Amino acid sequence: MLKQPPVVREGDLSLLVDLYELAMAQAYWSEGMDDTAVFSLFFRELPENRNFVLACGQQNVVGIIESLAFSDEHIERLESLDRFQPEFLDWLRDFRFSGSVYAVPEGTPLFPQEPLLEVEGPIAEVQLLESLVMNYVHLESALASKSVRLTFAAGGRPVVDFGMRRTHGLDAAHRGVRAYRLAGLTGTSNVLAGLDFNMPVYGTMAHSFVQACPDEMDAFRIYASLYPGTTLLVDTYDTRSAVDRIIKWLKDEPEVSVGGIRLDSGDLAAEAVDCRKMLDEAGLTDIKIMASGGLDEYRIAKLCSSGAPIDGFGVGTAIGVAKDGPALELAFKLTEYASLPRMKNSPGKQSFPGPKQVYRRLGTDGRIAEDVVSGRDEVFDGTPLLRPVMKEGRIIEGAIAPLDDQVKAASKSIDTLPERFRSLDPVNESPVVISEFLRALQRDTLERVSKK
Amino acid sequence: MLKQPPVVREGDLSLLVDLYELAMAQAYWSEGMDDTAVFSLFFRELPENRNFVLACGQQNVVGIIESLAFSDEHIERLESLDRFQPEFLDWLRDFRFSGSVYAVPEGTPLFPQEPLLEVEGPIAEVQLLESLVMNYVHLESALASKSVRLTFAAGGRPVVDFGMRRTHGLDAAHRGVRAYRLAGLTGTSNVLAGLDFNMPVYGTMAHSFVQACPDEMDAFRIYASLYPGTTLLVDTYDTRSAVDRIIKWLKDEPEVSVGGIRLDSGDLAAEAVDCRKMLDEAGLTDIKIMASGGLDEYRIAKLCSSGAPIDGFGVGTAIGVAKDGPALELAFKLTEYASLPRMKNSPGKQSFPGPKQVYRRLGTDGRIAEDVVSGRDEVFDGTPLLRPVMKEGRIIEGAIAPLDDQVKAASKSIDTLPERFRSLDPVNESPVVISEFLRALQRDTLERVSKK
């Protein structure tokens, strides 16, 4: 019986690869095809309800690339597949990525045809990275692209991640929090991720605690004494009577410190209005009202626009699985090999060959006026978004900012979105212009490959 | 600057917990509340398009539970949160789960109100497991519940997982494959997962290989020579002309071994019909046609019912993120504490108190006739689905079958689904009956807690 490991070990990431990458690598190797290739990670279309993708993970993935290697044990396991030649396995044993990576900063809003990252290097080496890079970047970008919408809907009110139980696995539970932080969320319930990614960790009680105590008030008393300023969960049995009893209790014992109450079911708007009124009339204006329970950006927007007196939101499922858009159609495409532009000609899949740059030009209002997607060596007005982060297989010193700085930069970058792109509804609009050079290159390349 | 680990380490899983679990554990500890609690993992509703959940992961999660522990480093990190008392941290330092787990076999189709697993033990210990258990089981159950539908649609034709690039992170890419195998998929493109979970690994070439070669035919020749019986990707430039050239080539060089072609874009049904005709007319009836590219159960069902001559399917995004139902609304609820049944009374959230059993009764046709959800100690006709897998914190010897046996049992279990539940459309029907005892317990408990 095989041992089935509960989590993927960092040292095993080189085997976390699609078989065809290895098959192609062996074919390149056996044919002596070792010229430089450029692969571009981009998307042709947005998920249905999105106006942009918040690109995350594309800089940090180089941390994995730099250390990727095949151990003797990996080689033995690959041998067992009976598909690889001993000399190719020797090549794998010596494998360290020797190429370059260009990436947009963490937390950059992007539009169709704009690369999140480009990888350049000997073709077999880059090919081997495809699935791992796509997986790594897709997770964070999918979760960030969803969760940033929650911050738009909440209009400045704190939004806290409660999603660990719903994210797809342990890696998503953990690294998703990095994406939420880049997207502007306020905190997380997830202890390890909060500690690892320097995000405030929140959480007080579940219904189970209230249910286990002899009486709801016992639960509240225990918490207020252990955790002064705590938030009490009030909907286990009956929300209004719970709040009523809290009010009486705080009247009798004014030294008790309660910071807030949390509503987790029912008509949140109506409950919030009633609870606020009860609390205010008792002079407890400092007690905050938090809401959770099946919230997404639409429900939050509705709660906010209805004027519901809710001070913050806890969100789980919606952001944990990026519920209405769990997949971004990221493609990792060969765009140049041996100095020749490359593209395929599959129906309905428009792409542009060659290494690229994206120039983002802001208007006088500080918002994105135009993005020019150009050849890498072209020069346009604006800020070039793709920046070198890895060269000759090593992370470029200082090229990747510490996470706290990335978060600040991401926040500024999100602020450059024109107001209409912050809408929860699709605007079906793009600021992207393709340069004349790229258009010509596409025509020429199409003509060349169609002669084949 | 914090080190930001690229993957979660197995040894750190004890910190992969929602803060409120730790807060509640400290509260239970400080109050001396250490009676036995029963928590039940179940769901009240199915995702929109589903007729059942294929429960996976609920037995295997005990592998994680058994080894869960807090190291000195973990304790230090928890100290930094400034929320925990030294004596409670000592309690954590000594923590090893000492309770019991009951779970249904891996790959069991379940319906609303049927527990996937129940955990029993000192309340603080069980509470600590909540988020980890939910996350672990949710991943596999969500992906299995989606991917089993692909096998229904394909009606016996092989379906291969191509989804690594889309799954939410590395853990999902890896452990998802275990779920696909339990759901009946034929293979995976993912090397590490295929090796770890003993599933055949498939994959030949991407468009990039064809594009990098001087000519499409070069790509095909290289592959046929390196990988006899290979499957050639034919849609990089023009599918029909690629197939035309393959036919001429195999006519000229009959010793060349090509096993199949893969279509990855365009009108797959029409392309398959044309290619099959071309191949058959050339006497190449043995060459199989594989299809991929944005496939899901609906597209596969349509292709199959249209009679498209497709021999197998590669599926990525649809199963990788369980696209139309990425989240199952799993709940982990306290149902008993200190021998008293427990439940909450939140609006619209029906649940039943007390430890449970599910008796599955098959009809004479071998299909599910009725499931009785009962109290744990009740006895009904049929097979009890919840079985003890962990006792006193240790996995019960022999209680968890090796994966190969789990897969066989899952296949049989899936076969017990009445035909209508295998429909891709919702049947809005459930074979579940709640026992009289549980209904009475619910009434009594509601009455008791509403007096609070």
UniProtKB/TrEMBL annotation, chains A, B:
What are the Nicotinate phosphoribosyltransferase N-terminal domain coordinates in residue numbering?
15-137
* Catalytic activity, as annotated: 5-phospho-alpha-D-ribose 1-diphosphate + nicotinate + ATP + H2O = nicotinate beta-D-ribonucleotide + ADP + phosphate + diphosphate
Enumerate the Pfam families for this protein. NAPRTase, NAPRTase_N
Coiled coil location? none
Residue ranges annotated for the Nicotinate/nicotinamide phosphoribosyltransferase domain, each copy included: 159-319
* Key words of the record: Glycosyltransferase, Ligase, Phosphoprotein, Pyridine nucleotide biosynthesis, Transferase
- Protein EC: 6.3.4.21
Q: Which GO terms describe its molecular function?
A: glycosyltransferase activity; nicotinate phosphoribosyltransferase activity
UniProt pathway: Cofactor biosynthesis; NAD(+) biosynthesis; nicotinate D-ribonucleotide from nicotinate: step 1/1
Q: Do the record's keywords include NAD? A: no
Q: How is it modified after translation?
A: Transiently phosphorylated on a His residue during the reaction cycle. Phosphorylation strongly increases the affinity for substrates and increases the rate of nicotinate D-ribonucleotide production. Dephosphorylation regenerates the low-affinity form of the enzyme, leading to product release.
Which EC main class describes this enzyme?
ligase
SUPFAM superfamilies in the cross-refs: Nicotinate/Quinolinate PRTase C-terminal domain-like (SSF51690), Nicotinate/Quinolinate PRTase N-terminal domain-like (SSF54675)
- Gene3D superfamilies named among the record's database cross-references: Aldolase class I (3.20.20.70), nicotinate phosphoribosyltransferase (3.20.140.10)
Q: Which family does it belong to?
A: Belongs to the NAPRTase family.
Cross-referenced PANTHER family, in alphabetical order? NICOTINATE PHOSPHORIBOSYLTRANSFERASE (PTHR11098)
Record's function text: Catalyzes the first step in the biosynthesis of NAD from nicotinic acid, the ATP-dependent synthesis of beta-nicotinate D-ribonucleotide from nicotinate and 5-phospho-D-ribose 1-phosphate.
Could you tell me what this protein is called? Nicotinate phosphoribosyltransferase
Supply the source organism's classification.
Bacteria, Pseudomonadati, Pseudomonadota, Gammaproteobacteria, Pseudomonadales
